[in-house]
């Protein structure tokens, strides 16, 4: 990471700007999603998500990677990432299609974004 920022000091702002200006397909990101930001209704259902000060347009995998990196072990992150991205893509596709819209990105696009986000 240090090498990236030493060689290209504006890399991060340029990368994130690509979501803001539409060069990359982005979604609404919480920006600081981790366990204390999630309010639970019961053991299974989320009641709400709080602390939206860092909301922005960003990578579709950003919040998933953040919560897995801050709230689980490396072993769990490796085991859960693929199934979570599958679930995310399936649910997003179903929701958009139910509202008459086409899913704008493929499951492979999530893999590419995940690889690029881990570059950070």
Structural class: mainly alpha
| Count of individual helical segments | 5
How many distinct beta strands?
Answer: 4
- Outline the biggest β-sheet: 2 strands, antiparallel
Give me the side-by-side strand order of the main sheet. 1-4
* Alpha carbon gap, first and last residue: 6 Å
The arrangement of helices and strands along the chain is HHEEEEHHH
CATH-defined fold name: Transferase(Phosphotransferase), domain 1
**Rounded average pLDDT:** 91
Which value, in Å, is the CA radius of gyration? 15 Å
Give the CATH class. Mainly Alpha
Task: Please give the share of residues in helix.
Answer: 40-55%
Integer count of domains: 1
> What overall form do the CA principal axes indicate?
globular
Percentage of β-strand residues: 5-15%
The name of the CATH architecture is: Orthogonal Bundle
Low-confidence stretches: none
Record the SSE blueprint.
Layout: H1 2-7, H2 11-20, E1 27-29, E2 38-40, E3 46-49, E4 56-58, H3 62-71, H4 74-98, H5 107-119
Antiparallel strand pairs: 1-4, 2-3
Helix pairs in contact: 3-4
């Amino acid at each position: 990471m240090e090498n990236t920022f030493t060689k290209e000091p504006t890399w991060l702002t340029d990368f994130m700007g690509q979501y803001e200006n539409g060069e990359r397909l982005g979604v609404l990101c919480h920006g600081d999603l981790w366990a204390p930001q999630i309010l639970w209704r019961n053991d299974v259902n989320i009641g709400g998500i709080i602390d939206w000060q860092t909301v922005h347009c960003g990578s579709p995998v950003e919040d998933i990677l953040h919560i897995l990196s801050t709230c689980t072990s490396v072993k769990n992150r490796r085991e859960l990432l693929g199934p979570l991205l599958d679930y995310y893509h399936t649910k997003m596709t179903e929701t958009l299609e139910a509202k008459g819209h086409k899913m704008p990105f493929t499951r492979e696009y999530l893999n590419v974004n995940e690889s690029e986000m881990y570059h950070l």
